[in-house]
Specification:
about 190 residues, alpha+beta, 4 helices, 5 strands, about 35% strand
Length: about 190
């Protein structure tokens, strides 16, 4: 996989730009930090073009990433989680999604079978704070991190590049996943 953290990010929306969500639609903000950072991957779940719902690069303060779950869909593949950690931060994508996709997102995150659960967080994006943003956290965390497989590694890094995550954060994410794959502890 070729990784260039200096590649230009996707176009983000500002609050003044028109949205595809009308005033009659109920909507929610969603913070993606794993495979859903990639709008192409999220589109497979919501069955709509996810690019149109991107607000921009978001920052979740006082959390860190961890591979605390073994994917039930892919053998030997750890998937991401966010866990509280003072002084750390997680970068990802803030979406403004129409309510009609909420159930599809819950199904993807295996909420009905206790894979992940919804939680509300505050996310910083474009100089603003967005309270009550939905994200998902692992319900039953593994005692040790589980390395991602190559497919998950690639989709997370594609999302990071597309979203325009900071260069430093992107490299830390890349190196964290590589160390896990090599069996190195942090």
């Amino acid at each position: 996989m070729s990784f260039d953290p200096s590649a230009p990010p996707f176009q983000t929306h500002t609050a003044s730009q028109p949205r595809t969500i009308t005033h009659t639609d109920r909507a929610f903000y969603y913070f993606a930090y794993g495979s859903c950072m990639c709008p192409v991957d999220l589109a497979r779940t919501i069955e709509e073009d996810a690019h149109q719902f991107v607000v921009g690069r978001g920052i979740l303060q006082n959390y860190r990433l961890a591979f605390n779950r073994l994917s039930p869909k892919r053998k030997s593949c750890g998937v991401l989680d966010v866990v509280p950690h003072a002084g750390s931060h997680v970068e990802g994508v803030l979406y403004h999604l129409p309510w009609r996709v909420s159930e599809k997102l819950d199904l993807r995150e295996e909420v009905p079978t206790n894979g992940y659960r919804q939680t509300q967080v505050t996310v910083e994006c474009q100089g603003r704070r967005f309270p009550s943003v939905r994200t998902y956290v692992v319900v039953n965390k593994t005692p040790q991190e589980v390395p991602p497989d190559d497919w998950y590694f690639y989709i997370v890094m594609r999302g990071a590049m597309t979203a325009g995550l900071s260069r430093d954060y992107s490299w830390r994410l890349f190196n964290h996943m590589k160390r896990l794959q090599r069996g190195q502890t942090l």
